[in-house]
Design goal:
The structure holds two protein chains of two kinds.
Chain A lengths: L1 H8 L1 H33 L13 H28 L2 H33 L7 H22 L3 H33 L14 H33 L4 H11 L1
Chain B lengths: L2 H21 L1 H22 L3 H24 L4 H5 L2 H7 L4 H30 L7 H26 L5 H9 L4 H16 L4 H30 L1
């Protein structure tokens, strides 16, 4: 099994194989986006309390999900790279970080935009918003560490350790922030996802979540391809590729 | 490797680091002065009102302690890297984890222990109630080792990098958040006369977790950086 894994996990195979995947993933992503946005922005009825402004959840909630999911992917890929020395995993982890940071930022911005009409203020020290902000700091720290270390192999392994430390800390941070929030503030109406959401609102949300997932898959593969080209720039197959392009 | 050698290595490194640390007095005193200055800045910014200061006392002391401990972290492996000792540690046939644990212990004794004593004086200066003094001491005793332990992992990751000081601060402060939250909550509750055992248990649990995992993570970080 490992032989198989190593063969198709080699940078070269990954480079060739991912080329086939990216257009498909991108295409599915576009279709899902169109379906999800029509469902969410046109077909779903306005919320009885929040009116039209609830529709921002179709961007906000999937971004928030992705922000956490990508950190997990980053840590898992980092661990894979660290333990089994899979170069593709290193490239995937490195390629994921800016995407994760962007989704976290998007979740914060959309949350803030939604908060202004709903809570009457741009920012609330709500437990989830605060956790999300700290997650953004963790992503930025990871990116800063990656850029500070010149040797890409060392950078990948150091990043893997940092991501693993982060993964252990995320639940601790999350629960301590939640706990801090209950201590310091009285109950505010902070529940974004109503306990029961109508099916006509839920389906577009799930489609959007899938669309975000496919977007991530397509872009991370694309970015990982460039990472691999840069990591392997001295290897024979990349030189060959360049020669071919020069034609 | 038997227990005796392990103990011997641990004590030898500990003694060596303590001796070096005690001979470089400025490195000992600087974080302490920094600690005092931050609290003074807070007092100046908040105003000389007893009520305001009393209310923010736990937060002020703990934020100052966090920053002072972060500032002093940078020195943990720095001189060892410069004079080549770190490479020798890596090549040594003794367990690197034991060496790392000794170094962390020495660092904590040199930088955080004076801070804990100083915090009691600062507590008086910012009008922390008498009932909260002992809880403050307890949170510092449980919390500052976590700072040194978690800090060690990130120091090992950034040792010898250009601009490592700011980078280290950026990486480490988000990870200190749980310690900050539970410690400030403990002291706050104690000042209000509420129960604090729950928060102290949380701090203790975090300390146990950090003490178990951080030395191993530090070891692999060092191996990666100098590998």
């Amino acid at each position: 099994m490992f032989e198989y894994f190593y063969k198709y996990g080699s940078p070269r195979h990954f480079y060739d194989l991912s080329k086939l995947f990216v257009p498909w993933l991108g295409g599915i992503c576009v279709i899902l986006f169109i379906a999800g946005l029509t469902g969410g922005l046109v077909l779903a009825p306005p919320d009885y309390q929040q009116g039209e402004s609830f529709r921002i959840i179709y961007v906000h909630v999937p971004s928030a999900w992705m922000s956490l999911f990508i950190y997990m992917v980053m840590a898992a890929a980092g661990a894979t790279g660290l333990i089994w020395k899979v170069k593709v995993a290193d490239a995937l982890a490195r390629a994921s970080a800016p995407l994760g940071a962007s989704f976290t930022f998007l979740a914060l911005v959309t949350g803030s935009l939604w908060g202004k009409p709903m809570w009457g203020t741009w920012w609330v020290w709500d437990a989830r918003l605060t956790s999300e902000l700290i997650l953004l700091f963790l992503y930025l720290g990871y990116i800063a560490l990656q850029t500070a270390i010149d040797d890409r192999r060392t950078a990948a392994r150091a990043g893997a350790i940092l991501a693993l430390v982060g993964v252990i800390n995320i639940p601790i941070i999350h629960y301590s922030v939640e706990w801090w929030h209950t201590l310091h503030q009285g109950p505010t109406i902070t529940k974004l996802d109503a306990p029961s959401i109508h099916i006509s609102m839920l389906v577009p949300l799930l489609i959007m979540a899938l669309a975000f997932m496919f977007y991530y898959a397509a872009v991370v593969l694309l970015r990982a391809r460039y990472e691999i080209l840069e990591n392997e720039r001295n290897s024979a197959w990349v030189c060959e590729l360049i020669e071919q392009r020069k034609g | 490797m038997n227990t005796q050698t392990t103990n011997h290595v641990f004590l030898a490194i500990l003694r060596r680091d303590l001796m070096i640390g005690l001979r470089q007095r400025s490195e000992l005193v600087n974080p302490l002065v920094f600690f005092f200055i931050i609290v003074t800045l807070f007092a100046l910014a908040l105003g000389p009102y007893e009520e305001t200061l009393r209310q923010s006392a736990p937060a002020v002391i703990w934020v100052a302690a966090l920053l002072a401990s972060t500032l002093s972290l940078d020195t943990m492996f720095h001189s060892d890297l410069d004079d080549g000792c770190l490479e020798q540690f890596l090549l040594s046939h003794h367990s690197l984890t034991i060496i790392v644990m000794a170094k962390i212990t020495a660092h904590w004794l040199l930088t955080s222990a004076p801070l804990i004593v100083a915090a009691l004086f600062l507590g008086l200066m910012v009008y922390l109630p008498q009932t909260a003094m002992l809880p403050l001491l307890a949170t510092l005793l449980l919390g500052t080792p976590v700072l040194s332990l978690v800090g060690a992992v990130l120091v090992a990751l950034t040792v010898g990098l250009r601009g490592s000081g700011v980078l280290l601060t950026l990486l480490i402060l988000p990870l200190y958040i749980p310690v900050l939250i539970f410690s400030v909550a403990t002291v706050d509750n104690a000042a209000k006369g509420l129960a604090i055992t729950g928060e102290l248990y949380f701090l203790g649990a975090i300390l146990v977790l950090a003490a178990t995992l951080a030395p191993l993570a530090t070891t692999s970080s060092l191996r990666i950086r100098l590998g």
